[in-house]
């Protein structure tokens, strides 16, 4: 009798292992097919400036959109995720140095990457949150590209995307935003320019940088990073409804909350938001208070 029980247990474990392997293989194939898909989109062109004022404005956009969190202050790229189960991800070197953009990288290539999440060969970019950048007005996107093109060349290691078992499964189940091109309406039209002002409308535009973590409704929820801190509600039903404008600005400039907590930058990137101008912070506060 004992032998039969052990045989059943061993057989059951064998079946379970086989099912897990089959499931993982299916997830691996789903992810591979997504990464190998070729996109053919129409790229709407616009002029990329080269004057110092536009480049300075582009530098501000780079600083306030969190680009440095992945690509570094010098745009050479850095490893921002290194986990055996989730994977290892090193962002691309955006300069024209070794391991970065090729010398023949065109303005169309920049727009294709930022607005559509697609590489020059038609394959999708991985991880890059183009689903946020695509909604920037042409004026702002052009200035951001102008800045990236102006940065001195830096030699660095090329981009690396190596998914671990958990990263593969989460990506296959669409729990990890791996392919930005899937989330973009490639035929959408975006405004040429958004006027900067202390207004609800401009504040709404600025929240493009917030939706990736705080969700499109800005109500927060589960962190997109497995095991990460849950993301807070930043509408009026959350702390924003309790904070004054001065308190809000202090939180986004220093990470220090009115109740005495010090926010970790990896949970709330205040090292990024501290670069916002007073006008931007006021507009953002106005809009969030309406939600």
Automatic annotation (TrEMBL):
Q: Which SUPFAM superfamilies does this UniProt record tie to the protein?
A: Cytochrome c
Report domain Cytochrome c positions.
Answer: 53-152, 198-291
Recite the UniProt keywords alphabetically.
Answer: Heme, Iron, Membrane, Metal-binding, Transmembrane, Transmembrane helix
InterPro entries recorded = Cyt_c-like_dom, Cyt_c-like_dom_sf, Cytochrome_c-type_DH
A GO MF label: metal ion binding
Pfam (any one) = Cytochrome_CBB3
Q: Where are the transmembrane segments?
A: 12-31
Q: What is this protein called?
A: Cytochrome C oxidase, cbb3-type, subunit III
Organism (species): Chitinophaga niabensis
